[in-house]
Each structure stands twice: as structure tokens, then as C-alpha cells.
Amino acid sequence: METKVYLAGPEVFLCDAAALGAKKKALCEGYGFTGLLPFDNEVSAVPAGERSDRAIYGANLALMQEADCAIINLTPFRGPSADVGSVFELGLMVGLDKPVFGYSNTTTDLLSRMRQTGSVLFDDQDGVWRDQYGMRVEDFGNADNLMIDACLAEQGHPLVRVNVADGDLYRDLRGFAECLRLAAQELLTAAAPVSSRRDNRA
Q1: Mean pLDDT estimate for the chain
Q2: What does the pLDDT look like over 78-122, one tens digit per residue?
Q3: Which of 11, 139, 165, 169 is the most buried (most CB within 10 A)?
């Protein structure tokens, strides 16, 4: 019986998203999974007269319901935090009580990234960091908002962090491959790729 994994992340917005998605699906197959890619790049398949955004939402929702688990790219996107769409998908999969594995192609924590932008100041009176609106910034050493890190940790799947150069931030697949290994170790009979298991039986 095949095990289906939903593959979420901001790389759907890359100009070569389809090619990268094919690489991710191939890696999934190597571990015995069937990768399910979001519908975002299939807008041409939307029926005439139907809103593209609603069609994409509905198709992706169906894929998440079909999937047995998910691997989500939580690399910061268009700001210090993860892509909001991917975070929604993370929450939905957790709410569906399905295993979720996440990775980030940066090893810095949320506060460190905000400090690098100069958008936070330390409040000596209260002993906390605050943003430009005077709102407290979390300082737990987490990769992102505590709800993201904590929900993964509660499942026993701490966020995988990989240090990647800016030029490869959304194309590097080392974190993805590690999530696949962890998922296979937990959900399948062995963590070795299918090809390796065949070789071992030969």
C-alpha cells in the first residue's frame, strides 16, 4: 500500500517550480513514498469561469486530505517568518492528526533574523525585545513562532534546520531529504531508500 506525502513550501513560486517538484517526487519514490505536489502551478487546468485561487485552494485541500503525512518547507519567505500558506497547511495537517515533518534552510532563530533587519529594540525596563510597533518579540530560540516549532516537537518531529547559502535558499533539498529519512524511519519498514533495500536483498 502506497504512503502519500503532501509536499508544501514557497518553492511553488519559483520559475522552475515544476522541475524542482519533480526532483522532490523522485526523492520520495526512492524512500517508498508517493509525493503529492500542490496544485499552484496547474492554473491552466482550472475550468473556465471558475476563480483560479479558489480552485487551487480546493485542489490542495483535497490533496492534504488524501495524504498520509506531510513534509513542509518552513524556510523564511518574504520576511523573517515562514510562508503563511505553508504554515496554514502545517496547521491543517496537524489538525487532521496526520504526521508532519518540517525543515528550514536557515539555522538562525526568529529573533536573530529580526535583529539583523534592525526592526527590533531591546526594552530595558521590561527586559524584552520589541518591534517597531512596541509589540514583544518571542525569544525562545525557536526557528519561528512558537506554535510552529511546538506543534512539530509535540509530534516528536523537531524542525530540521540546515545552513544554506542565500542563492540556494529555496532549492537546496538537504533538509527535505532528512525529513524524508525521518518519515521513512517512522512510517515505513526501513529508512533506507527502496533502491538500497533491493541491493541488500540481491
Answers
A1: 90
A2: 999 999 999 999 999 999 999 999 999 999 999 999 999 888 999
A3: 11
- Residues 149/100, Cβ–Cβ less than 8 Å: no
Which residue has cell 522552475? 16
pLDDT band at 37 (very low <50, low <70, confident <90, very high): very high
Question: Tens of pLDDT along 130-169?
Answer: 999 999 999 999 999 999 999 999 999 999 999 999 999 9
Place of cell 531529504: 177
Half-sphere exposure of 201 (CA within 13 A, CB side): 7
Q: Are strands 33-36 and 3-8 parallel, antiparallel or unpaired?
A: parallel
- Mapped onto helix, strand or coil, the DSSP state of residue 11 is helix
Sheet holding 120-123, edge to edge: 120-123, 128-131, 136-137
Instruction: State how far the Cα of 36 lies from the Cα of 70, in Å rounded to an integer.
Output: 9
Phi, psi of 94 (to 5 degrees): -65, -40
DSSP 124-186: TTTTEEEETTS-EE--SS-SS-HHHHHHHHHTT-PPEE----GGGTTT--HHHHHHHHHHHHH
Compute the radius of gyration of the chain from its Cα atoms.
Answer: 18
Cα separation, 26 vs 33, whole angstroms? 9
Contact 181, 31 (CB under 8 A): yes
